[in-house]
Design a protein that fits this description.
The protein has helices at 22-29, 38-45, 59-74, 98-105, 122-135, 230-252, 269-279, 290-293, 300-311; strands at 5-14, 18-21, 49-52, 83-87, 112-116, 141-149, 167-177, 187-195, 203-204, 227-228, 261-264, 286-287, 319-326, 330-337. By secondary structure, it is an alpha/beta fold. The chain folds into 2 domains: 5-181, Thiolase/Chalcone synthase (Peroxisomal Thiolase, Chain A, domain 1, 3-Layer(aba) Sandwich), CATH 3.40.47; 187-337, Thiolase/Chalcone synthase (Peroxisomal Thiolase, Chain A, domain 1, 3-Layer(aba) Sandwich), CATH 3.40.47.10. The strands form 4 sheets. It has a 5-stranded mixed β-sheet with strand order 1-7-6-4-5, sandwiched between helices. Helix 6 (230-252) crosses helix 7. It is globular, with a radius of gyration of 19 Å. The chain starts with a strand and ends with a strand. 50% of the residues are buried.
Amino acid sequence: MKMREVVVAGTGRYLPERVVTNAELVERLKQIAPDTTEEWIVEKTGVCQRHVAAPDEHTSDMAFEAAHACLHKAGVDAKDLDLIVVPTVSGDTNFPATANWLQGKLENTKAWAFDVNAGCSGFIYALSAVTALIRARQSDLVLVVGAEKMSALYDPQDRTSYPLAGDGAAALLLQSIGPEDNSKWYGIRGFYLQSDGQMADVLKQPLGGTSEPLTRENIDDPKRYLCMDGPRVYQHAIRRMVESVNGVLDKVHVQKDEVNWFVGHQANGRILEKVAAKLGVPVEKVYININKYANTTSATIPICLDELAESGQLKPGHKVVLFTFGTGFTWGACYLVWGN
């Protein structure tokens, strides 16, 4: 029995209507950090603005809009999906999974659904799981939607991290095809995935889990927000992203100069520029849009892919490396040939 191939059959994205500029953020931060400027935020993060969800706009709502856009462009009925996966760290509820809330909004009763919680690496981890399931003939038509409401998880009093918070969602539709129908070798070709639990304490949300539950007494504790050791995350992110790109290209026997696009998790503009320099690839080949959307965690990579595809910059046959780094620590990369 021949192994099934996995191709990208569609993309779609959704960004909340409200845009918060650095100028507005500086006004908010003036009382606690009066020396904060728009230029400082851009220099440290690469972010100029971010989209912020409305108070009553949930992660599954954004996921639904991205899913709808993706399925509409692909000409696929949501009821035909047989698996729905949502990588997220900012789900509607601890349980059920945000994928279940999304499935209900899509009025799909055929699929099974689950979330992937791997922080900023969630999208690539989800792609790996879905690819294995399709190749094992467990699913044929799968929707993967990275969706985040990160504005709810960052401390608005922390000027070093809050400017990075962005909300949004983006979807990829993955389809199973036989190798006999894929003469151009399109689709997902390989992964490189790693993690290091010894670093779990460096980037986390301390409050709200079973180790330290939310109570009436601690509901206003800043530990309910994301906490990180910024310098350590920065250093490890650069090293592990470079490792991931090299690792996946070694696995698939492709040279860096053959790659058309390097699409990385949009953690920080400076990180992406450093990664390009250490890889020795032109920064023009590394897609960067953090200036418009900030860090939308598991949604950054699919947002990039949808923008590239929609603009016509991503063409059939293009060789693409997706790469990431996130909490855990987790990191990894995916190599694919665009087209279906």
